[in-house]
UniProtKB/TrEMBL annotation, chain A:
It comes from Streptomyces phyllanthi. It holds the Pfam family STAS. Residues 11-122 form the STAS domain. Signal peptide: none annotated. This is STAS domain-containing protein. InterPro entries: Bact_StressResp_Reg, STAS_dom, STAS_dom_sf. It comes from the Bacteria. Gene3D superfamilies: STAS domain.
UniProtKB/TrEMBL annotation, chain B:
It comes from Streptomyces phyllanthi. This is STAS domain-containing protein. Keywords: Phosphoprotein. Gene3D superfamilies: STAS domain. Residues 169-280 form the STAS domain. The keyword Nucleotide-binding does not apply. InterPro entries: Bact_StressResp_Reg, STAS_dom, STAS_dom_sf. PANTHER family: RSBT ANTAGONIST PROTEIN RSBS-RELATED, RSBT CO-ANTAGONIST PROTEIN RSBRC. It comes from the Bacteria.
């Protein structure tokens, strides 16, 4: 349970709540204990009726193993049961390549280029799209 | 054989040939300068050809003196590699095949042989025969050294070009705000598809691209390996939050894919790059419309 290097989270990953979305920012190594705690925290927070989405920001993660892949899939499965959607944001190229080589393509997971994009994805129509007007709206 | 000892000659044929080469190097160099190999390379100055020939003769003499007639690794051949290989390489660049060059190197033998026979005519027939055999072996080794050098040069060229191909053949093009494309040309192997994947993913981050188009119009054949590479790239791009579209699947390739039973069901495909671009634009909420000048559009 205890790794050689100290976890950057002090045993807990912060789960922030922005409106009806939960934001989890992962950085560096994720230890077994921390991951377990995180899954529990997210499930509890998602059980709150007003949450309809979870964004996991991976832009600070540079090394990945099959364990992290499983953690992501688990969180997605759990939140889906609680009627919320999980979006993984900002995955780095090296991490993506490693996951694919490991055979973890995470088919049930939604992805986004950045946290901003992920929030937009979950917000749906409430936030105006970047490429504003369609042809029908133009004069 | 030990006939030379029986006949009272203390000098081995190889040594004899070495001495002969050193003694006659001027004449040999002069004759070689007229041979096809040297004449066609040193077109400007005959002196240069003579100079090159002399260097080779001296190297051969050193090899013969060391009695390493059949050893292509002999020290003397290093000079030959430098000198003769350079001339041979320039013949090769001029369009000669390896066997042509080999024949040209072989053509260096008769003039030397003539001189040798003339020099040794006073000696016993047996001795002449041994010396000519030694010389022939030496020239054979020379021919081998030249060919070997040619092949090495060819392999170096291939290796260099392979690396160049790897660099050149994978440009990532920004088609629109948030849309990048990779036109794949030529056969995809593991090394290339790895480079393609890396450059594509990097540019997705760099350009903040939501859509990536893999255009395989220039890929001649698709087998299960290539399809696997494509699916890996698509999966990795998806993990990063970009949507990947494979375009340019020609009818023949579509048939092959179906025949092979490859399931590209998880991959978004479009017939042409234009279709893929149109799809990506529409997904972004942009649309392409014809320009209507001042409301007076043609009806």
């Amino acid at each position: 349970m205890t790794g050689l290097s100290p976890s950057p989270y002090g045993g807990q990953v912060p789960v922030l709540r922005i409106g009806d979305v939960l934001l989890v920012t992962l950085q560096g190594d994720l230890h077994d204990g921390t991951a377990e705690q995180l899954q529990q925290d997210v499930s509890e927070a998602a059980a709150d009726s007003r949450v309809n989405g979870v964004v996991i920001d991976l832009s600070g993660v540079e090394i990945v193993d099959s364990f992290l892949g499983r953690v992501l899939a688990d969180i997605a499965a759990k939140t889906r049961l609680l009627a919320a959607e999980t979006v993984v944001a900002g995955m780095r190229p090296a991490v993506a390549i490693t996951l694919v080589e490991l055979g973890l393509t995470l088919p049930g997971l939604r992805t986004a280029l950045s946290t901003e994009e992920a929030l937009r994805l979950l917000g749906g129509a409430s936030i105006s799209p970047r490429y504003g007007r369609t042809r029908q709206e133009s004069p | 054989m030990s006939e030379q000892e029986a006949e009272g000659h203390q000098v081995a044929p190889a040594q004899e040939v070495g001495d002969f080469l050193r003694l006659r190097r001027e004449q040999i160099a002069q004759r070689w300068a007229d041979a096809a190999l040297f004449r066609t390379v040193f077109t400007v100055s005959r002196d240069e050809a003579v100079e090159a020939g002399r260097a080779v003769v001296e190297a051969l003499a050193a090899v013969a003196a060391a009695e390493r007639l059949e050893d292509p690794e002999a020290d003397g051949f290093n000079v030959v590699r430098d000198q003769l290989a350079r001339t041979a390489a320039s013949r090769s660049r001029a369009g000669s095949t390896n066997s042509q060059i080999s024949t040209e190197v072989d053509a260096l033998r008769p003039p030397v042989l003539e001189l040798l026979v003339a020099d040794l005519s006073a000696r016993g027939e047996e001795h002449v025969r041994e010396c000519t055999t030694a010389l022939t072996v030496l020239m054979g080794t020379l021919r081998m050294v030249v060919l070997e050098t040619l092949l090495t040069a060819g392999q170096e060229l291939i290796e260099r070009q392979r690396l160049q191909l790897l660099e050149v053949a994978t440009p990532v093009i920004k088609l629109w705000e948030g849309i990048v494309a990779v036109p794949l040309i030529g056969t995809l192997d593991s090394a290339r598809s790895q480079v393609v994947m890396e450059t594509l993913l990097d540019s997705i981050v760099e350009q903040h691209a939501r859509f990536a188009i893999l255009d395989i119009t220039g890929v001649p054949t698709v087998d299960s390996l290539v399809a696997q590479h494509l699916m890996k790239t698509v999966a990795a791009a998806r993990l990063m939050g970009a949507e990947c579209i494979v375009s340019g699947i020609r009818p023949a390739i579509a048939q092959t894919i179906v025949h092979l039973g490859i399931d590209l069901g998880t991959v978004m495909t479009r017939a042409s790059l234009a279709d893929a671009l149109a799809y990506a634009l529409r997904q972004q909420g942009a649309d392409i419309v014809a320009h209507v000048p001042d409301g007076a559009g043609p009806r």
